[in-house]
Each structure stands twice: as structure tokens, then as C-alpha cells.
Specification:
The chain is an alpha+beta fold. The protein contains 7 helices and 7 strands.
Length: about 190
């Protein structure tokens, strides 16, 4: 109700194309689109509504493709006996918003134990992913997906050694648990 009231009171002053650009730039377009649709869709100019809907749908399709690739990769890793913990990206979207389309992300981040890095690299390359880079401080490597062109960032460290406060990675591994994410049982950081 509050969003609708704000739109009613100020809609003549809004630069709707600028709102759309800023929402996309700041990675909140899906949330803006959802809230405007729920609260004031009939008050939004038709061209802006169409743009928001189109961009939201494009984001949802891409996120769905990336989530499927992630779950396929996780199943392969599980079969190989390697525990992989996805974080950010689609798992955060599902856990925070309950919907894959309500968050923008451009890559997939997974955490592996350092000793598992060679096995994961081999599994990804066997699945058609291309190793494109290893971060210069030795914390992660990027693999490009064969379909969609997005990256999977395989990380075995969360912060460089000079980070202002230490990240206790061994302790992190003791705090992972299985969580249901959209019907998939995934390892996730827990409290």
C-alpha cells in the first residue's frame, strides 16, 4: 500500500526509464519489478511496465539455466565424492527471497576444500567447462560454461591472507549442512 501511495503522489515526476536503468545497474531490478507489479502496476506507463517485465523474464530464464547447470555440476561432484558448497547466486536467491527470479547474479560461486581443487577442475573440464583463469593470489579459478557463457568460480579460499580479519576456513567446513533449495539437497553454510 505504501509503494502505491508513493507512486500516486509522485508518478508525474518519475523518470521511469532512469528508474529501470538504476534498478538494473544496482542489481535490484527483479525486486523493483515485483514490488511495482504487486503494488502499482496499473499506474506505471505501459512501455516501462513492458520493459520491466521483459528484463525480469530474461533474468529468470538466465537464472534458471545457471541453477540447472549448478545442480548438474553438484550431482557430478557428489558422485565423485567431493563436497561442494554453493553460495551467493541462485542459492542466496532461493534462501533469501524464495524465488529464483528475485535476484540478479552473473556467475556461480562454489567453495571446495583446497585438496579437492584438481578433482573439481577435472570434473568441470570433462563436463565441457573451459578453465579461463586462476586468480593471481591462488584463492579461486574461473570456468566458463559450455552453454550460456557464464562463469563458475571455484573457490578454496574466501579472503586473501592480508584481509583485515582472518577467515577461519577449516571452521567454515565444520559448519556446513544439507539444505533443501528448490527441491535439491545442497551443502550450505549454516550458523
Amino acid at each position: 500500500a505504501m509503494i502505491r501511495k508513493i507512486i500516486v503522489q509522485s508518478r508525474e515526476r518519475w523518470d521511469w526509464p532512469e528508474l529501470t536503468r538504476e534498478a538494473q545497474l544496482h542489481g535490484v531490478l527483479p525486486l523493483v519489478a515485483r514490488n511495482l507489479a504487486e503494488q502499482g502496476c496499473d499506474l506505471i506507463p505501459a512501455d516501462c511496465r513492458q520493459t520491466l517485465t521483459s528484463l525480469y523474464q530474461r533474468n529468470l530464464v538466465r537464472n534458471t539455466l545457471m541453477f540447472r547447470s549448478l545442480t548438474d555440476f553438484l550431482a557430478t561432484a557428489e558422485t565423485a565424492g567431493v563436497r561442494v558448497v554453493p553460495f551467493k547466486g541462485p542459492t542466496l536467491a532461493m534462501r533469501a527471497y524464495g524465488h529464483l527470479g528475485y535476484r540478479q547474479f552473473s556467475d556461480l560461486d562454489v567453495l571446495v576444500q583446497r585438496r579437492e581443487w584438481p578433482r573439481i577442475a577435472s570434473e568441470l573440464e570433462s563436463a565441457g567447462f573451459r578453465h579461463v583463469a586462476t586468480e593471481r593470489f591462488g584463492q579461486y579459478a574461473n570456468f566458463e560454461a559450455p552453454i550460456g557463457g557464464f562463469l563458475i568460480d571455484v573457490q578454496w579460499g574466501l579472503a586473501p591472507k592480508w584481509f583485515p580479519f582472518p577467515v577461519d576456513l577449516p571452521a567454515t567446513w565444520t559448519r556446513v549442512a544439507r539444505v533443501n533449495v528448490d527441491g535439491h539437497s545442497l551443502w550450505q553454510p549454516s550458523n
